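User: Hey, quick favor. My workstation is busy. Could you predict this chain's structure for me?
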Amino acid sequence: MANPFDTYDPRVLYDPQSERFLAVSLNGRLVSNQILVAVSSTADPTEPWTGFALDSDSTDATWADFPTLGVDADTVTIASDMLAVGAEGLPIAVDVLVIPKSGLLAAQPTISGAMLFERTRLAVTGFAPQPVTRLDGAGLPNWLFSSGVAFFGVIQTTRIAGSATAPTIAAGPYTMVTPMPTPPEAIQPNTTLIDTGDGHFASLVRIGDSIWGVHGTTSAAGRAAIRWFEFDASSAAVLQSGVLDDPSRDFLHPSIAANALGQIVIGFSASGSWLVPSAFAALGETVASVTTFQVPILVRAGTASLTGGGVSRFGDYSATVADPGDASRFWTFQEVGGPFGAGTVAVASLRVVPEPHATPSALACGLVLCALAAVRSGHCDRAWRQRTLRRFA
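Assistant: No problem, here it is.
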């Protein structure tokens, strides 16, 4: 059985509607394990939390790996890849856990009524499906998206319908996209390569009638790059997409956020033969249904390359979110190269403001992104880093 102290793969999400933090993790690798779920008691994450543990497989034949997390007005949805006990590699099924949010928010939180769709077929969900987080205040039905076979030109979707206490799960439509390879390993100034993951969706967020998502891919120049999408929230069809890349840098582990002002921010890590792993962000603005991303800016420079030789793990995902109390502010959490050849997490507050002295006609594309960054220890340098964002070529 799982070791209750061997927890890994945490995900944390703030739900602006309920003003609570939600978290998921797993315990125990290669053995029958548990899905760990927790909810904060207030909007302050330092206040008490309530946690729950659920058996990931009632038959103990598989173990859960790499959980993903999403929320809407009705439910909290968690998906986990399921692998045969004792085995690693590709999953053989997926667990989808749907929890009524009303119970989690009760004075005495509960997961009563939660539905675990155990070992759901990959034909229904795909690999590493990511639930959509809805910021429009609405509930079911909702989506999961998988980019596990995007290199074949297919985005797989899953539909969660029914009610919070009686949800249903079914395969959604296949969304056809341009085939692009999964990302290669990233380089840095030393000889240790960086694992860029398998190109899964790291975050999906719905605002209005659009769902925004990002995943890792390979650029035309053969570097690790980022592909972004805007999907139609009703049909899951692609409305627009694009690639962020650079001829001399690898872009890896992206996440995306959107606000009601039509602004999109992608946060990610980047490295190169001359660049130690560092945190970056790119701002997108939508005009006449066309989104253009400006040149990425450095949010927080890393201090050293990762060491160890071969290929180094570098965090499976990142997080970027819109500030629920400030329409012009975003937050991003990215891994950077830290002391002694290890990784550390950079936390940055990003504010979008009009460029000084810009004419009204230039306000749509002339913006400044201001970042106040902090490392995982909580220390802030209190120095505002400013740079005019230019249109991404």
